[in-house]
Design goal:
Helix content: 25-40%
Radius of gyration: 19 Å
Oligomer: single chain
Number of helices: 11
Bound molecules: adenosine-5'-triphosphate, magnesium ion
Order of helices and strands: HEEEEHEEHEHHHHEHEHEEHH
Distance between the termini: 23 Å
Shape: globular
Number of strands: 11
Length: about 300
């Protein structure tokens, strides 16, 4: 994408990685007030996920403040912002992974189409199949490649026969761009693969249960550029079938893979716009400060 290219060039010229150095020695942006409401276009018609006034607390510490956002069908939305601004916390609230943290509380309206994610009748195991998650560090189960991918379909009773299961495993590995590399060693341990292959195995495991939404929390941060490029290609292909929300520290990556970008700052959602606008004509001063590297 053009924006990704120009970000690459700008960073190369400045001899820096994005958002880490104050090249122009301009004043710190920390005193810039938050907007009363998120600027840009946080809302959509007929979204896949509808999130309103979401607050997340760890004991008495509020990590997410009144975030309202729609996530569209078949879109890739990038969540960006400085370390500690709440990207992972917000992402985890979208499939109730925060339930696994004792001191964490979530309130607000969080809907997957018409279903309330936090309804007491919601089956959380089923929810996590519909809204799958890929983590920063590849985390294959200590099982064979085949059993990693077959795990979800077995758990959810999606395959009646061995033949069906074989087909699901192959299809998922193909979609994850891993089939050719592993088809002759399906019964070898998943942990024996390279980091990039393990991450694609985790993606295959996630998509094997046909999720509607895939959440990715910095899925490439432990990978080299070649493995990263493969995952980015894969994201572009997956968006034909799924909705993807990806947290990334790399603005080039956000520009390359996403349609919309959401900028978080100290637990607030400052700005949401189409990705090109965020990187070329950000509306809010805090967004601009981040993308021009005045804080990171
Ligand atoms: N398990 C936890 N217990 C208590 N506080 C937490 C926990 N996880 C996150 N926090 C706090 O919530 C805030 C947001 O953290 P979060 O990990 O969501 O940020 P982030 O934007 O993902 O940061 P990074 O880019 O470094 O991954 C931080 O103040 C953090 O200390
Ligand atoms: Mg994080």
């Amino acid at each position: 994408m053009d924006t990704a290219q120009s970000l690459d060039n700008r960073d190369a010229e400045a001899g820096r990685t994005p958002a880490t150095q104050d090249k122009d020695h301009r004043p710190a942006m920390q005193d810039t007030p938050y907007p009363e409401h998120t600027v840009g276009h946080p809302f959509l018609d007929d979204p896949k996920m509808r999130l309103r006034d979401v607050n997340v607390f760890y004991a008495d510490n509020q990590a997410i403040h009144n975030v309202s956002l729609d996530i569209g069908k078949n879109e890739v939305i990038a969540l960006i912002g400085p370390s500690g601004c709440g990207k992972s916390t917000f992402l985890r609230s979208l499939n109730r992974m925060n339930d696994t943290i004792d001191i964490c509380r979530v309130n607000g309206e969080l809907f997957l189409e018409r279903q309330d994610l936090y309804d007491s009748k919601m089956d959380v195991v089923e929810l996590r199949a519909r809204v799958g998650m890929v983590f920063q560090k590849p985390n294959p189960f200590p099982k064979s490649i085949y059993d990693n991918v077959a795990y979800g379909p077995r758990l959810h009773g999606l395959a009646d026969k061995k033949y069906d299961l074989d087909e699901m495993v192959e299809t998922s590995l193909r979609k994850a761009g891993l089939w050719d590399e592993v088809k002759d060693r399906l019964h070898a341990p998943g942990t024996g693969l390279s980091g990039g292959q393990q991450q694609r195995l985790c993606i295959a495991r996630t998509i094997a249960v046909s999720p509607e939404v895939v959440l990715m929390d910095e899925p490439c941060s432990a990978l080299d550029p070649i493995a990263t490029a493969k995952i980015e290609e894969l994201i572009a292909e997956l968006t034909e079938s799924y909705t993807i929300a990806i947290v990334t520290h790399s603005m080039q990556q956000a520009a390359r893979v996403s349609h919309r970008t959401a900028y978080f700052h100290l637990g607030r959602l400052i700005e949401v716009n189409d990705t090109d606008t965020v990187f070329t004509k950000p509306e809010h001063a805090l967004t601009e400060a981040y993308i021009t590297g005045r804080f990171g």
